[in-house]
Write a structure and sequence with these properties.
single chain, 207 residues, mainly alpha, Arc Repressor Mutant, subunit A, 2 domains, 12 helices, globular
């Protein structure tokens, strides 16, 4: 790891992660290399190794940042003085995930390999951001869903957070995939991230 001021290290790491995010908008995980990342930063590939040892570590940092962004949305819901019904709460959370399509896309990847090829301290940092989302989600339900017991909330979380792994592949379907479904004569109604999330949450939160 590069030895510099914490501010310098953070700034350079952020530039690398932002470059990865830029590439990820139009490229797949498997096609993005450290060389590709270096091409859209001010750093050479050897310099990147001072901050991230693998491509997976860069993606893990991007993943962490996406959870932090979602946490900001969840905290806004949590800290609101409004009292929300289950439908309103489902709508707010669904809208928050609609804005976090990149988080859902990352969730749909093989996270085992990403985590396995990252150093423990970086993985722990990522897990803290993930754990914060669990905590925020739990506190939102405790605040706005008084009809749910502690056991109910735990069960909802064990359903909803694994459910999130599958939202992106169902909502963001390519033209090739749609054509294949048509040829296979599969009668399927496509829904948006918002619709899939909202429909799930309204059922989970119903009294």
């Amino acid at each position: 790891m590069f030895k510099g001021t914490p501010e310098t290290v953070a700034q350079r790491r952020e530039e690398i992660v932002a470059a990865c995010e830029q590439l990820y908008r139009t490229m797949s995980f498997k096609d993005i290399t450290l060389k590709e990342v270096s091409n859209v930063t001010s750093f050479s590939r050897p310099t990147i190794y001072n901050y991230f040892q693998t491509k997976e570590e860069i993606f893990l940092a991007l993943f962490e940042r996406e959870y932090e962004r979602w946490n900001a949305d969840l905290e806004e819901i949590l800290n609101s003085d409004e009292k929300y019904s289950e439908q309103q709460l489902a709508e707010l959370i669904a809208k928050s995930l609609e804005r976090r399509a990149q988080l859902l896309r990352l969730l749909s990847m093989n996270n085992y390999d990403m985590e396995e090829n990252s150093r423990e301290e970086l993985l722990a940092s990522f897990k803290r951001a993930y754990g914060e989302s669990l905590q925020n989600f739990r506190m939102i339900l405790e605040k706005h869903c008084s009809w749910l017991s502690g056991a109910d909330i735990q069960q909802i979380m064990y359903v909803f957070f694994p459910f999130m792994f599958g939202i992106y592949p169902y909502a963001e379907v390519t033209a090739k995939q749609k054509e294949a479904m048509t040829e296979a004569e599969v009668d399927y109604k496509y829904q948006s991230i918002y619709e899939i999330t909202y429909n799930c949450l309204t059922r989970l939160l119903s009294k």
